[in-house]
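Let us work through a complete example step by step.
Step 1: write down the sequence.
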Amino acid sequence: MEIGEDKQSGLELASRIRATIPLAKIVFITTHDELSFVTLERRIAPLDYILKDQSADLITQRIIKDINVVQNELKKTNSQRKDVFNYKSGTRYFSLALDDVILLSTSKLRPGSVQLHAINKVAEFPGNLNALEEKYPQFFRCDKSSLVNLNHLRSFDYKEKELLLDGEIRYKASFRKSRELNKLLRDN
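Step 2: predict the structure and record it as tokens.
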């Protein structure tokens, strides 16, 4: 709550965070138990309000519990949303709009890793294309090492078997998949 000498600067910061990021999870760690009602009056809606007069171990346990609660909520929310692409890298979870994904391909330098090409984002994470293809059937399997979001297809050269995707990404389709893609494009 208190930052420097200002007893309510933490409240001001929390109010700005709430206004900017409405679904943010806010946890106060403070000695000012009398300000807990002010958080309700300002509609800050903190996830937790931890008092510093507890032991360091207890405070640590509460913080860990809060982090676990938020991670479980995110997992549930993201798995229920079908318009979101989710992936995990290390201990961090990431989500982006499914429509923003352009291409998923296996990493040639790191077996067992998938490269993600999206609008304004390139990332690499552990995974395999078979599982991603099953989870996201809207992607087109262009060869054994790539999945393409056809909503980002700008052109397809059937003779060269080359796709031109948004972001000037060029990708070759296998012989069999190029026939399948040609038929799919012709029928639609």
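Step 3: interpret the result. The CA atoms of residues 115 and 124 lie 4 Å apart.
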